[in-house]
């Protein structure tokens, strides 16, 4: 006890403030780096994503995806799903992982940020709710609360 109080006595408030500033700066930089590398960082562990990547002139897949979310609002909300649409001519498209830039279609991305499923057309939508319901975390969610849909 005497040793620690002796050491603290020699740390000036300015030194403590400087060390806290450096620590906060390091934490901010780490968060910013993760965010710049991962375009879906803000959704991680909060939402499952349906990501549509398509040509700027096409609305075939994005239209079907929007229709799906409009038809099943309760089901998509209950599963914490979000729809993100990226057109090939948009600046945001360039921030996507290379795999998503090279293969246009519909992607299911899980809470962990990993791709769970892909289809080059809208066929993924027909079984996506069942697919998600088979995931471990979704099963745990169902154990904790009952479906409202």
Q: Tell me the radius of gyration.
A: 22 Å
CATH classification, class level of the largest domain: Alpha Beta
CATH homolog superfamily of the largest domain: Glutaredoxin
Termini gap: 60 Å
Q: Specify the oligomeric state.
A: single chain
CATH fold node name of the largest domain: Glutaredoxin
Please state the structural category.
alpha+beta
Total number of helical segments?
7
Total count of domains: 2
Percent of residues in helices comes to 40-55%
Largest sheet: 4 strands, mixed
Which features characterize this protein?
single chain; 149 residues; alpha+beta; Glutaredoxin; 2 domains; four-stranded mixed sheet; globular; disordered N terminus
Protein described:
The chain is of the alpha+beta class and 149 residues long. The protein has two domains: 2-37; 41-144, 3-Layer(aba) Sandwich (Glutaredoxin). It contains seven helices and four strands, in the order ααβααβαββαα. It has a four-stranded mixed sheet with strand order 2-1-3-4. A hairpin with a 5-residue loop joins β3 (105-109) and β4. The longest helix has 25 residues, at 13-37. It is globular and about 40 Å long. The N and C termini lie far apart (60 Å).
